[in-house]
Amino acid sequence: QVQLVESGGGLVHDGGFRRVSCAASGSIFSIYSMGWYRQARGKQRELVAVITSGGDTNYPDSVKGRFTISRDNTKNTVFLQMNSLKPEDTAVYYCHVDVQVPELGRLEYWGHGIQVIVSS
Question: Which of 49, 74, 99, 109 makes the best surface tag, with the fewest CB within 10 Å?
Answer without folding.
Answer: 74
